[in-house]
Amino acid sequence: MNRCLVTATALLALAVPVVASAQVQRNFPANALRGELTVSTPPEVTLNGKTAYLAPGARIRDKNQMIIMSGAISGTKLVVNYTTEQYGYIKDVWILRSDEIAKLWPRTAAEAASWTFDPIGQTWTK
After folding, report:
1. pLDDT tens by residue, 69-105
2. What is the DSSP letter of 16?
3. Are 76 and 36 spatial neighbours (Cβ–Cβ below 8 Å)?
4. Distance (Å, rounded) from C-alpha 37 to C-alpha 40?
5. 12/8 Cα distance (integer angstroms)
6. Of 97, 108, 94, nearest to 48 (Cα)?
7. Is residue 43 exposed (0-12), middle (13-18) or buried (19+ Cβ within 10 Å)?
8. Strands 67-68 and 33-39
């Protein structure tokens, strides 16, 4: 009986951080851009309707900030924020939640250069 209570308490303690972390605002870098990503045959992807490639060691984070493999989202069209590395390969990808999609975010480097970014509020203004 006492073991059951300890086990139930331990499970509850593990579940609380998961619920709390779902409410946390994710911080995206100022150089991240918004796009639509579809993984075809990794490392090949389609980004905004054009063929692109994932960089070696690219990180894809799901809606809960967990790193996932590109094969897990193969064939699914997703709205993402992403960064590229110096050769143009996609380096970091964040699959966006509906509240993040609703926020204004630049789709091109030209937009990012002409808009203002608030890193604390994670908002862009034109």
Report:
1. 999 999 999 999 999 999 999 999 999 999 999 999 9
2. H
3. no
4. 10
5. 6
6. 108
7. middle
8. unpaired
Token pair in block for residue 18: 């998961």
Both tokens assigned to 114: 């002409």
Residue 42 and residue 77: Cα distance in Å, rounded? 14
* pLDDT tens per residue across span 6-38: 555 555 566 555 555 456 889 999 999 999 999
Q: Which two structure tokens, joined as six digits, stand for 37?
A: 């990503």
65 vs 126: CA distance, rounded Å = 28
Say how far residue 47 (Cα) sits from the centre of its chain. Answer: 14
Tokens 């069209």 locate to 77
3-state class (DSSP) for residue 101 = helix
Q: Tell me the C-alpha to C-alpha distance, in Å, between residue 48 and each of 8, 75, 115.
A: 47, 14, 20
Closest CA to 81 of 64, 67, 60: 60
- 74: DSSP letter: B
